[in-house]
Amino acid sequence: MTPVTSSAVSVHVNGDAYRLELDHRTSLLDALREHLALTGTKKGCDHGQCGACTVLLGGRRVYSCLVLCVAVGDREVVTVEGLADGADLHPVQEAFVQRDAFQCGYCTPGQICSAVGMLREAEAGWPSAVTSADTGTSRLDEAEVRERMAGNLCRCGAYANIVPAILDAAGHGGADR
Amino acid sequence: MTATTDAPTRTGTHPRVEGLDKVTGRARYAYEYAADEVAYAWPVTASVGAGEVRGVDVDGALAQPGVLAVLWHGNAPSLADVGDSKVAVLQSPVVAFRGQVVALVVASTSEQAREVATTLTVTYDSREPDVVLRADHPTLYRPESVNGGYSTDSVIGDAVAEFDACPVQVDATYTTPPEHNHPMEPHASTAVWGDGRLTVYDSSQGGNAVRSTLSTLFGIDRELVRVVTSHVGGGFGSKGMPRAGVVLAVMAARQVDRPVKVALTRQHLFDLVGYRTPTIQRVRLGADPDGRLRSIDHQALEQTATVEEFAEQSVAATRVMYAAAHRRTAHRLVRLDVAVPSWMRAPGETPGMYALESAMDELAVATGVDPVELRIRNDPDVDPETGARFSSRNLVACLTLGAQRFGWAGRDPEPGVRREGRWLVGTGMASSTYPTYATAASCRAGVDPDGGYDIAINATDIGTGARTAMLLVAADTLGVDPSQVRVRVGDTDLPQAGLAGGSMGTTSWGMAVEKACRELLEAVRAAGGVVDERIEVAVDTKAEIAAQAELSRHAFGAQFVEARVDIDTGEVRAPRMVGMFAAGRIVNARTARSQLIGGMTMGLSMALHEEGVPDAAFGGFTNHDLSTYHVATVADVGDIDVGWIDEVDDDVNTIGTKGIGEIGIVGTAAAVANAVYHATGVRVRDLPITLDKTGQLA
Ligand code: FES
Ligand code: FES
Question: What pLDDT band is residue B4 in, cutting at 50, 70 and 90?
Fold first, then answer.
């Protein structure tokens, strides 16, 4: 018998439900970009090595190139297109504009989604490799941001602006939205 | 000093015009244009290091689901010869290097194309590849000229005899590995044929060159080809000329009569889009005990491919940096079974200044002269090789102000003596330079009765902020608020302009925009100052470019670095960097700062991380992804502080800009290496400075 290589899949992205007939090999990243025309999420390596494809899955940041779309299930996917509230930018987006925290912009959607997820992780008290046992995560400083954002490469070298942008956003409710 | 006058510097500061599009995901890159019935093409690359393709299992592949076509040199349409091996894809059985494109699979979905490309049977006649650059290689030769049109050699006086006679001598060899550009957006193209016209959305630093190349290759009238480059995810030289991907997309689209997308993978980028050649550089500096240079000798050995020559101008910067009566510079090449090396951010200056500025540090140590003072002492009045006047040269100001900003004064030169906990701490510096180029461009400017101005020019914004810079040049010339001006770039339907490369975008395009705006103002004046119907002018700058006087045109800079080296692991950190630049008029302070820190960040990455490792057994590179080819992450970068002097240079060109896209990376690696020496007392002359190279420190 011929093997079954595709399935009907439901995905929930940015508050909308979609029903797709998908090749089982389709990554969440390709499903977003090629099937849902949500091209804000970028492909930089397709191998989990650059972070350009970062989205929020069930509220947590993931590399969407490493997630098969058929495995997403009913978890909500939030992409860069789903962060702003109409014309009202998410504090992280706003801070990236204010700090000129990008040049070419190709890593930017991934950086922003990653930062949003990271701020929530820090708020929830998750430690990082540089968190000291004494202070916990109550103080999100430069070193914490650098450690927690190290999975998002920026070849334009905007890091020196990305770090202050994220710290600005942290001070403006970036973890709450 | 010709600079820093009271004249207004006309530096604006304006947020990136397309910033909102980039943070919301609306900015559209080459792969992201919707097209009906789009097909996907996946390049298959050579698994042998050298040889010939004997056959491809086309029938087996065509039997797989979704496959629309399989192309290889045995069945691919023939292309006109444009004398560029990089675009002559699938035209010959010869495999010149591992990773070369040998076939293309076109299918209805990317999953199908990828799977069949990965499993396609290709048979070869192969031979053992020769891919390792070494100084005693038998194919070593002298190229006719080097990239940028520079001469291969220069000889003034007798550098060797003078060196032998000098009381202080530095004679050192520095090596740099292959380095890869790796813009975050891998090269991608979407090709759409329709009504005899071809539209290509391409990830390119200059659409006009893509258009001409495609039109010749495929024999289509230029006017019927449109190349759109609205947003480009970085390039750093690798998207400066058309390459395999875009040609394959167009070929496949014609073949299957559907729109076709091609995205190179991160793996492909190691072989198909150029890289910086490895270099072996010998520098000999002869000086008096006070550090004054009497002889400079700089020889660079580099690699090139068997199918095409590329010679990086690694010693070009040495010809303008310091005064010395006796001088010699030379480039030599070795032909190997490697991919064609090409442009990577500041080709020539980047590896060359790493070697020269490291040697200058060694001279500072040998003479006991402070490194900043040593450079000031050897600053020339005129171009030391051509004798031409500098349009402006403010290296000394950069050195002085940069040293102040960094807190260099009072530095103890003794190496290896400052310890903080488990860290050895040191500081280092180096000079930066980059030439100022400009090419002719055309531009249209118009004004409508509602008072809105618009500028059209096929500039390309690869992340540099070109749209915003052109907006500010236009608003400044027109004397209106930027909100009244609309700028269109990134489309060959707009007036022709050169590429975003060589740090000449803002200058070349800006000259045309400025001229168009001036003429528009005149046209409005001629109309009595009333705009009751649209007024439009079109200009080009061929005359201005042709009329440029013979001058030595260069930007300069000075970089300062604090390095910390872990005494147990040898890990190097650079918590603090300062860059001070003199680059003429800075059009937009906000994006300029980003460009300069971006360049310095890439320089830090070069100093500590980046290393393409040639695969001596199988050809190509052993590292083929971002987990094995390291680039700096946010965790590797500390505080980067950049500044510039208000350099007013009315002679350099009609708008006073020198370009800033590349100078930020020039000198950084030397400043880091010099700081590592100061921290540890260990001189690493082989990049990158990895853990294993500083030796036992504890
Ligand atoms: S594209 Fe997913 S991590 Fe690079
Ligand atoms: S902005 Fe270009 S890669 Fe980060």
Answer: very low
Q: A142 lies in which domain range? A: 91-170
pLDDT digits (tens, 9 = 90+) for A17-40: 999 999 999 999 999 999 999 999
Over the Cα atoms of chain B, what is R_g? 26
Q: Which of A81, A105, A126 is a domain's end point? A: A81
Tell me which residue of A94, A97, A58 sits closest to A78, measured CA to CA: A58
In sequence order, what DSSP letters do the residues of B320-364 get, joined into one string?
HH---SEEEEEEEEEEESSPPP---SSTTHHHHHHHHHHHHHHHH
State which residue of chain B sits closest to A157, comparing Cα positions. Answer: B598
The predicted structure's pLDDT at residue B601: 98
- DSSP class of A81: G
* Cβ-contact B596, B581 below 8 angstroms: yes
Which residue type is seen at B16? R
Closest-approach residue (CA) in chain A for B25? A40
Tens digits of residue pLDDT in B266-319:
999 999 999 999 999 999 999 999 999 999 999 999 999 999 999 999 999 999
How is residue B491 annotated by DSSP? B
Domains of chain B, first to last: 33-128+184-234+239-272 (3.30.365.10), 145-179+275-436+551-694 (3.30.365.10), 439-546 (3.30.365.10)
Residues in B 450-479 with any Cβ partner in A closer than 8 A: 462-465
Q: Are A33 and A41 in contact (CB under 8 A)?
A: yes
Residue A150 domain flag: yes
Task: Indicate whether B6 pLDDT > 60.
Answer: no
What's the pLDDT tens digit per position in B136-163?
999 999 999 999 999 999 999 999 999 9
Q: Minimal CA–CA distance to A78: which of A60, A101, A55, A62?
A: A55
Q: Is A3 contained in some domain? A: no
Cβ neighbours, 10 Å, residue B26: 14
Q: Is A49 in the pocket of ligand 1 (CB under 6 A)?
A: yes
pLDDT of A174 > 90? The answer is no
pLDDT of B543 above 70: yes
Q: Tell me if B143 CB under 6 Å of ligand 2.
A: no
Residue B601 · residue B637 · CB < 8 Å: yes
| Active site annotation includes B373 | no
Best residue among B29, B184, B605 to mutate for probing ligand 2's pocket (most ligand atoms within 8 Å of CB) is: B184
- Give yes or no for a contact between B566 and B690, defined as CB atoms under 8 angstroms apart: no
Predicted confidence (pLDDT) per residue in B377-413, tens digit = 999 999 999 999 999 999 999 999 999 999 999 999 9
CA atoms within 13 A on the CB side of B51: 20
Whether the pLDDT of residue A138 is over 90: the answer is: no
Q: Round to whole Å and give the CA distance between B628 and B616.
A: 17
Q: What is the dihedral of CA B402, B408, B413, B418, to 10 degrees?
A: -120
Which residues of chain A lie closer than 8 angstroms to B27, CB-CB? 105
In a domain, A151, yes or no: yes
CATH code where residue A131 lies:
1.10.150.120
A89 to B23: CB separation less than 8 angstroms, yes or no = yes
Check A103 against B595: CB less than 8 A apart.
yes
Look at residue B104 in the predicted model and tell me its pLDDT.
98
Looking at CA atoms only, how far is residue B206 from chain A in angstroms? 15
pLDDT at A177 over 80: no
Nearest CA in chain B to A129: B635
How many domains does one find in chain A? Answer: 2
**Considering chain B, what is the average pLDDT of its residues?**
96
A67 lines ligand 1 (CB under 6 A): no
- Coil vs helix vs strand at B560: strand
Q: Does B599 touch chain A (CB under 8 A)?
A: yes
